[in-house]
Amino acid sequence: VAGTANVVTTAQNCKVQKIIYMSAMGTKPDAESKYHQSKYKAEREVISSDIPYTILRPSLVFGEGDGFVSMLTQMMKFSPFLPIIGNGKYQMQPVYIDDLVEAVSQTVEKAETNGKIIELGGPEKLEYLEILHILKKVTGKKRMNFYFPKLLMKSIAAVLEAVVKPAPITRDQIIMMDAGNTGDIEDMKKIFNIEPLSFQDGLEKYMR
Known about the structure:
The protein is globular, with a radius of gyration of 18 Å. The strands form four sheets. A three-stranded parallel β-sheet has the order 1-2-7, with helices on both faces. With 208 residues, the protein is an alpha/beta fold. It has nine helices and nine strands. Strand 1 (19-22), helix 2 and strand 2 (53-58) form a beta-alpha-beta unit.
């Protein structure tokens, strides 16, 4: 939040013409996770400036070199199991990196995006279990799902947070995962004329 405030102040001093702020889908004033709370406060810093702005709220971003699919594919190389926290039915709306980049590129030029908060996501709202199924299908690797009770994972995450910096998994991430991550992408499709790529099509685009 402080970093965003510093950028806004500097942008004002330098007479920057527009701020594009990368927030996150699920951001709201009463969010349970600290991550989404911080994103909301940072958005307020941008909105309260006198500079034209656009706020983009992507869902889970995937593509070559990402931090999510890459993590899962690494697990698949060394483990016969894929971990699932809770029941795995929490939903996500993965957005392919090329669609995100196209939205950012157009935002720079399009005045009609000024003052808007635009959610960015894929065409599907997928349960985590469905995401794993599609990933196994595309990679051709059979892996068993291994379920971890949510309370147990929160306890493990608390220990990891205390001894590993940065922790591979945090309690805040579990809160966000449990809440799901989906939204309304009609503005994305209408303003940017983007028909977002499905999760499976995106994976096949860079994995094959």
